[in-house]
Amino acid sequence: MTFPRILLLSFLLVLVAPAGLAQVDAFAFENDEQRQRFRRLSNEFRCPMCQNANLTGSTGGVAEDLRREIHRMILAGSTDTEIEQFMFERYGDFIFYRPRLRPDTVLLWFGPALFLLFGAWMGWRILRQADDREKQTPAADLDTGEQEKLRRLLDNE
Amino acid sequence: MTKSLQKRIFFVPVAAFLLLAVFLWRGLYLDPTELPSVLIDKPMPEFAMTTVENQPVGNVNLPEQVFLLNVWGSYCLPCLVEHPTLMRLSEEGEFPVVGVNYKDRRQLALDWLERNGNPFAYSILDEEGRFGIDLGVYGAPETFLVDGEGVIRYRHVGVLDESVWRDVFVPVIDELRDPGPGP
Description:
The structure holds two protein chains of two kinds. By secondary structure, chain A is mostly helical. Chain A has seven helices and no strands. Chain A starts with a helix and ends with a helix. By secondary structure, chain B is of the alpha/beta class. Chain B has one domain (48-177): Glutaredoxin (3-Layer(aba) Sandwich), CATH 3.40.30. In chain B, 40% of the residues lie in helices and 18% in strands. Chain B has helices at residues 3-28, 77-92, 106-116, 130-134, 162-177, and strands at 48-50, 56-58, 67-72, 97-102, 123-126, 142-146, 152-157. The chains are: A mainly alpha, B alpha/beta. The interface between A and B is medium-sized, with 21 and 23 residues.
């Protein structure tokens, strides 16, 4: 391979290197299970600073600290629930991309389903209304004389 | 289907629209970067650390009166903006200001205090940001209002200038001292 080609190839390789994974792999773990848990947890938590990124994808200072904290807690033998509780006590529901199911988050969880049901109900009402109107033939309102008149008019057309 | 029900059904989309409009209108004026702190009405987290001057410091050293806990760093430009207000409060002495030197380096912090003046009774050195996590901090500057019992009463994210002090902190402090018109 010629030198320019090697250069081009290395450049392309840099492009495909997954930046997120590189950050995760900076931590050393005792086994793969710990690494998986770390990856899952830092994907689940939301970065408090750069609000639309999870901890894995964020380069913010506090995200870095929180990743280090998760790493420390995993090595210290904390369970996932304990780590989630730790984050919740400090950063509240905001830290979760999937907030916990509590009385004040019920609407958040089931609101969309409620809206869908409401829409379906509305749709059903409107369809039934149209149905009723169809059954009710216009001629029904007319007396015999008027019906006769109507038929004559239509026949003339 | 009766006429009146038909009429009522017509108002459903209008009502839905109005409700949505109210929510969205409110949303226009909410600051999404201002996260509610879960530490409000909770005691200050336990800590045993050192100050930037390398003195040991812990919960027992906290002022036994209403005070401000200001999270700052030498890298933090908005901290310079609020610095004159903190200096004034510190000089007046009614509300001591305790600093948390957040994710900074000791020497840089000392230089910054030397250069700009030191409004803090002392600054807790939190180079790793570990204490910041316990406080639910996500970036300097942030200012906590802590009462005489060491309970966090308010958290402000961002610059604490004179207008924020007047419009936000003073009412909260007044409320703390006189919690509502008694019966």
